[in-house]
């Protein structure tokens, strides 16, 4: 039951092509790293794979079907800057229940404090906010998780903590995990194979 | 001036913010607690800590550009003399240069070449052109406005501005994220060169790996204070030479080391523990750690804030 990108080409407006005839297959249970220097199209690829951008050419399919246009998206994307991925005018309890209602066990695994739920996003640090974003993306309907520089802005300790929990959940649920990072050591540590862009 | 006199020394700095909770009720939120640091000429001090943990505020406190609801206690000295608000105004941009974290710090209504030239003595154009060339900025970039630049270009302009000034102290707040590795390398090497010319550099970052090759000392920032200041050579092996349990844990958590996390999370300001700031997560914590905060003390050529460090 793979996530499959076939012959993708993409550009913004009339700018030069960012991706040309790019193909990729990620199977369930796999952890795949994507690395490359900044500006080479890593984040654009992530947006295409999760359905936020339509490629001009090529297709993205999950289990042979195109990504759903409505309802919960089984391909979930986590971004580098969590403060830009949450609604600044929603309290955290609304944000975390946006796609599903996580149970207490899930909140505990990521160390989410009960009294943070009533706070506004600007009252939490980046590390705290990113944990909300990760939990939000991990409903039982998720089958692919794309982490686009998920822990780049965080310190090494929080990075290790978040990744330990995420990889454990991915293993338990047999999720496909795509790790986008310029950090070679992190990719080497987490991934079974690496795609250089 | 004595040879080893610090350019800047910060002693027991505390920064708190007055905030409104509901209606007119105010609370005081302490974001930096009893922080000490010093920098000598010719040295690079890296301050490492998680983003959002308040380390930018340290830079802002030194420059005197905190918002008006901030309250600062403790002392700071520049060149051995107290750094008062008047001196901050006089020194910043001249003796103290700043590379801000956000590219929003550029003046949106001024061409970037002119902005960089403002920090050069005699406003020389050649100097600005040289520095732009060094950071791979085309010659026509000097006539552009900030909104016409990409994020990476704007950041290189910010770096250029600080590099051309003849400031004796350079404070760089996360100068490198989002840049190509070659340019990161260039910026860090450049900072090293400036330090070798006798200037002092404070390099604030969340990335330990990036500073290992350039810094002389590393100060580890946790929950609003520096728990340890150590010579860079101590960051090696399994971290045996490090003094504070948090620095050791941070070192071991790097993906190129053991990638082992410790349980628990950094306390948020407003709910800091009574005792040592790391006590709730510390494997070595004893009763005194929970009851009072350890003061900073000298240990093996570094400084540490821990009762049990040896």
Question: What does this molecule look like?
Answer:
The complex is a heterodimer of chains A (197) and B (310). The longest helix of chain A is centred in the last third of the chain and has 18 residues, at 156-173. In chain A, strands 6-7-8-3-9 form a 5-stranded parallel β-sheet, with helices on both faces. In chain A, strands 2-1-4-5 form a 4-stranded antiparallel β-sheet, with helices on one face. Chain A is α/β, with parallel strands linked by helices and 197 residues long. The mean pLDDT of chain A is 92. Chain A has a single domain (3-196), classed as Rossmann fold. Chain A has helices at 42-49, 92-96, 104-109, 126-137, 156-173, 184-190; strands spanning 3-10, 19-26, 31-35, 57-62, 65-66, 75-78, 144-148, 176-180, 193-196. With 310 residues, chain B is α/β, with parallel strands linked by helices. Chain B has one domain (8-18, 29-233, 263-268): Rossmann fold, CATH 3.40.50. Chain B is built from 9 helices and 12 strands. In chain B, strands 6-7-8-3-9-10-12-11 form an 8-stranded mixed β-sheet, sandwiched between helices. A 4-stranded antiparallel β-sheet of chain B has the order 2-1-4-5, covered by helices on one side. In chain B, helix 4 (125-134) crosses helix 5 (151-164). The longest helix of chain B has 16 residues, at 181-196. The radius of gyration of chain B is 20 Å and the shape is globular. The two termini of chain B are 34 Å apart. Classes of the chains: A alpha/beta (197), B alpha/beta (310).
